[in-house]
């Protein structure tokens, strides 16, 4: 066998096409191996056929079908006519118009989805008056909040005979503003009636909040601060003024969701129309 002939695997690597593609081209008589060994079935291509393969790939890249390319090589022209090229240009222009229309539809859908998500994420609500059992403490980080609830607040509320209505409601307030550590936090949980204060639990009447800007936040608690910043920026843009400390209401958390990405916290910011500050 002459050295200028290549096995199908070697030829496919040289042309950067798959063996399956070469076999298909052989089946449709587009590019047939120069020699097929009858005994072994091995297919051999000549180095000269590399140029034909490059011509096939070039025409295919311009939008010509394999059948059209085969006809060109059968006519031994190898080059499309001006009319055929202009026809492909018209096809490209039609495809461009369709792609632009599709792009416009996709952008419109994205805008609609963003608007819908924004409407679902930020709401304006009235918060009813409630009675809460309150505990204030300094914690190193939000990771300590669960331990505080399970080991301190929960047992003390049970000892005091607190009853929590359904659906339950618990939230925290950060006194003195946000701090990454040594957080001065007040935990409040809705109860049906006031009890007797203890060293750990104080009972409070929380008045109605006529208007609160609320945002749903999914994920671990280290995202709350940035989401609060985003919410305050949105409020400033929309002309809302903060009237009281923001609340972080815990809907789903480690107590019922193992995956932190499914934790749901609602930020509630009491507000009224007017400039912030």
Characteristic key phrases:
3 domains; alpha+beta; 277 residues; Multidrug-efflux Transporter Regulator, Chain: A, Domain 2; 9-stranded antiparallel β-sheet; elongated; 7 helices; 40% helix; Multidrug-efflux Transporter 1 Regulator Bmrr, Chain A; 3-stranded antiparallel β-sheet
Structure description:
This protein has 277 residues and is α+β, with helices and mostly antiparallel strands. The chain has 3 domains: 76 residues, Multidrug-efflux Transporter Regulator, Chain: A, Domain 2 (Orthogonal Bundle); 40 residues; 149 residues, Multidrug-efflux Transporter 1 Regulator Bmrr, Chain A (Alpha-Beta Barrel), CATH 3.20.80.10. The protein is 40% helix and 26% strand. Strands 4, 5, 6, 7, 8, 9, 10, 11 and 12 form a 9-stranded antiparallel β-sheet that branches. Strands 1-3-2 form a 3-stranded antiparallel β-sheet. It starts with a strand and ends with a strand. The model has no long low-confidence stretch (mean pLDDT 88).
Major β-sheet profile:
9 strands, antiparallel
What's the CATH topology name of the largest domain? Multidrug-efflux Transporter 1 Regulator Bmrr, Chain A
Number of separate structural domains: 3
Please give the count of helices: 7
Category by helix and strand content = alpha+beta
Write the CATH architecture name of the largest domain.
Alpha-Beta Barrel
As residue ranges, the low-confidence spans are none
Mean model confidence by pLDDT = 88
Strand fraction equals 25-35%
């Amino acid at each position: 066998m002459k050295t200028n002939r290549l096995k199908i695997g070697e030829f496919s690597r040289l042309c950067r096409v798959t063996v399956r593609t070469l076999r298909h081209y052989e089946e449709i008589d587009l590019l047939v191996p120069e020699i097929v060994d009858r005994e072994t079935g091995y297919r051999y291509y000549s180095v000269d056929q590399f140029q034909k393969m490059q011509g096939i790939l070039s025409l295919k890249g311009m939008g010509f079908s394999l059948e059209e390319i085969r006809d060109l090589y059968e006519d031994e022209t190898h080059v499309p006519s001006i009319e055929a090229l202009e026809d492909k240009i018209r096809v490209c222009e039609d495809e461009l118009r369709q792609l632009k229309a599709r792009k416009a539809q996709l952008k419109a859908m994205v805008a609609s989805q963003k608007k819908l998500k924004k409407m679902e994420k930020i709401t304006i609500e009235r918060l009813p008056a409630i009675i809460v059992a309150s505990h204030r403490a300094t914690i190193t980080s939000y990771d300590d909040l669960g331990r505080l609830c399970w080991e301190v607040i929960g047992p003390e509320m049970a000892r005091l005979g607190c009853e929590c209505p359904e659906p339950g409601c618990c939230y925290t307030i950060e006194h003195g503003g946000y701090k990454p550590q040594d957080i001065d936090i007040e935990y409040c949980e809705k109860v049906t009636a006031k009890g007797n204060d203890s060293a750990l639990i104080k009972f409070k009447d929380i008045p109605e909040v006529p208007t609160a800007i609320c945002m749903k936040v999914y994920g671990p608690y280290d995202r709350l601060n940035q989401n609060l910043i985003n919410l305050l920026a949105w409020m400033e843009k929309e002309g809302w003024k903060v009237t009281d400390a923001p609340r972080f209401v815990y809907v789903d958390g480690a107590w019922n969701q193992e995956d932190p990405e499914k934790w749901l916290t609602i930020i509630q910011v009491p507000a009224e129309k007017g400039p912030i500050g």
